Queue: 3 jobs
Job 1
Amino acid sequence: VLRVMAECGRSRARAGELRLPHGNVPCPVFMPVGTRGTAKGLTAAQLAALGCRICLGNTFHLGTRPGSELVRRSGGLHGFMDWPHNLLTDSGGFQMVSLLELSEVSEEGVRFRPPHGGEEILLSPEKSMEIQNALGEPGTPKPRGDGEDIPGGVPGPPCGGEDKARFWRTVKFSAEHLPRDKPRYLMGVGYATDLVVCVALGCDMFDCVFPTRTARFGSALVPWGSLQLKNHQFAKDFRPIDADCGCSTCQRYSRAYLHALLRSNTAALHLLTLHNIAYQV
């Protein structure tokens, strides 16, 4: 699955290529999160135009709304969202944390009260695999017998709230004990500093809602941090977000224009999401 092409002599960072059914993916790679079949604010075609060759779908949310059967009848998740590239679906287990007040853990699995109403859902390991198979994802891990090879390792994900030093030590320890020839996927990591450090520690794949979520608050990601474009200082700033960025937002629009849009127009959220995803991938 992973071809390692170069390794750093001073850290555990490496460059490689994931060989997947819908095309090869260079690593390290950041994967945008398409919870319900799209990254919020962008179409699949726009994601592809930004160079994205793999994104995520969420098993729990897709399984409850619109429902895995509808997605299956649409030709799987690829057909449903008109996405020709690679997809990765998660287990739905993160919702144990994000929907903590709506969930109850038992030996059988996790029982959820759906956030949009309806009957309770028991998400067991078997049910998770059933939903993912209905979504039609070739990249979904299939059940394996004892001794069978596994496609990769997951050094994490972080629990959230731990201090950086402890988090990085945990990632370092995990990555050191995972096979060299397998991809190492660190879930839920999207801050720039964390990405740089965790690549140096040997991780290959990352995902996070951070670039899309922060855009909805008027924040644009740049190499030196972020710009809070709602602030008055940008009202007469006619520069692009980042002069070195090739995304269509930076090529066409000024900080002043985006500042004005953020006061009254949701188009700004789309333009900032496009820039943030372009920056991150």
Note: The radius of gyration is 20 Å.
Job 2
Amino acid sequence: MGVVEDLISRSRNTAHGFTDLQAAADELVAGCDGQAAKAVALDLLCTDVHQARCIATFILGRLAASDPDALQILKQRISLDPDWRVQEILAKAFDRFCQDTGYEKALPVIREWLSADHPNTRRAVTEGLRIWTGRPYFREHPGVAVALLSAQRSSESDYLRKSVGNALRDISKKHPDLVREEIEGWDLTHSGVAKVARLATRFIASKG
């Protein structure tokens, strides 16, 4: 079998989790040049085996900081994948891009993805960077993280809004006043926004 077929076969052994899928991607990237790795990823994206598409997404995430085309494939193609597990790996791939680029340097791309039309693209950011204030730059600038996340509170996607609420709740554990002050300015008559607020303040509320 060829490399693509081997990876598809290997991926089928993963029923839950993603550890071996990530390992397979890492091994491929370590063993060949970026263009060859990207070609394998593109072939894997054509299969109906979601685990293989997860490997492809991990590969592209490893390449994205040095290959703008890989980053665009993540944004424009992977975000349209119908499988939720692939979307979870997209979030990890975007965080890998930010880590390799540097979170502050990646801010223009973070903002670009957060302004994308497709909610999956935006969720890759809100979910991928959790816990936001555990990441360099955002650790020192929690207000920037809160502002970026809060701008997504009225999204039409419940999937995205849930991610936003959970990410804000993460931040509230160390910065409760910052999150509380932000939410005080929201229009809670919007049911979706109110749900985000409830998620975001769950830890604060539990502490009385």
Note: The chain is about 65% helix and 0% strand.
Job 3
Amino acid sequence: MILGLPVAGIGSEQNEEQVNERPPKVLNLDQAILFGLTHHPRIFMFRHQVEKAKAAVQIANSHFLPNIGAGALFGVGEPGVSNRPFNNAYAYSAFMPITYDSVGPYGHNANLGMAQTAMASLGVTQLLYDFGKYEHLTKSRKELTEAATDNLLTRDAWVILQVKEAYYHVNLDRKLVEVYQKNLEQRQMVRDLTRSLYRANYKSRLDYDLAVVDLEKARALLVNEQNDLKTQIARLNETMGLGKKSRSDFALTDSAPETLVPVPLEQLVQTGIQKRPELLSTTHRYHAGVEQTAAEQAKHYPYISAFGNYGYLGNMVNGLSYSPGLWTGGAMVNVPIYTGGMIRGMVARAREASLTSQYHEQDWRIRIRLQVIHAYDRVRADAADIVAYTKAVKEARLALLLANKKYEANLISIVALTLAEVYLLDAEASLAISQYHMGVDQAALRFSSGIDYPEFVTMEGHVRSTPLRSSIDNQIPEKSENP
């Protein structure tokens, strides 16, 4: 099976904390992907971005709930408060014109010791009506949370793609090391044979020198490929989120797919438009911008709330206090009359942000179509290359076998034998590279079509313990038959 979508249903999820600190030595592709999804630091970065967005929703939603607070005040005043209606410049002092004859003078010029006063109260405010300001703000924050989740899924898909590319590249380099090792052994045999023929005067010194040069080239080719293998193993460790605990002794059990399931191109394009998390994130950001615009527009209208408090007010020297207690209550209406164009500017900013996301969404639709078409064409070309190079390897092996016989019989020169060796080397290397390209390009096709990440993570960003497997079309077989 090459291309697939998850079936309906949710698999079991994995926690962020994993018991295993290192991947197993014998590692299949699914294990490598799941390890990367549960250990790569970039995944955790985006998970915390999701939690940050959820906290923003909580902040916006809190405006619908009462705001309760407590406060206390103690101090010495001069000239203090005497026997007069209570008025201390609070906005709601008109609601409580109370005299405090029973408390006595709080302070005066002749007796500062009598000026020690205290106040403690519990207050509450409650939103009554705001013309939809915080309702739209909450909806906007929820859309941004969905966008943050889609960004997490985008990073999940990126990790899956990177792990696949690195995994297949390690397999490629190991295959090439094997090919170049055989090539080195073949060149050593030719060098030894040429030396024997040269000593028997059947070959010239030039033939022997050319054989030595070919041997050194083969050795250099092998060393370079071995170094590249070490680099690709390091890259595989990096894609799985490993640092100091990386390992170099992986035994990879899966090979790149060599067949192509014939899925219609337009079907893949439409699937990509429906499933790609980058596009889904942009869509949510557009809706968030629309809601944010509505929230900013609501600031043109009044903000109505209720308030009230109850507490203690008294003299700490003589112990006298107002009874039954300090209390206030009422309603507040905040009407914006002139803000210097601030509200209009905030509305325009939110509207332009939503329009930016709208055109970004359209741009993603175009890019997804191009990416799917590009990957689809590469996969088809890879399939043709594999067929061609498989035949070329068979022919090259027969040609080299025949050339060795002729060279031993002194019927051809070392140049002809070298050409046969080079042809086989190129054919085997080209076949291995084509198989690698098939795996990488199919991974790119699955990535661009948005059909890979749902097999490993839920739509909420939780990693599945076991990947889901299903065909993109129930009419398409899991494996295609060779023509």
Note: Residues 15 and 203 are 70 Å apart (CA to CA).
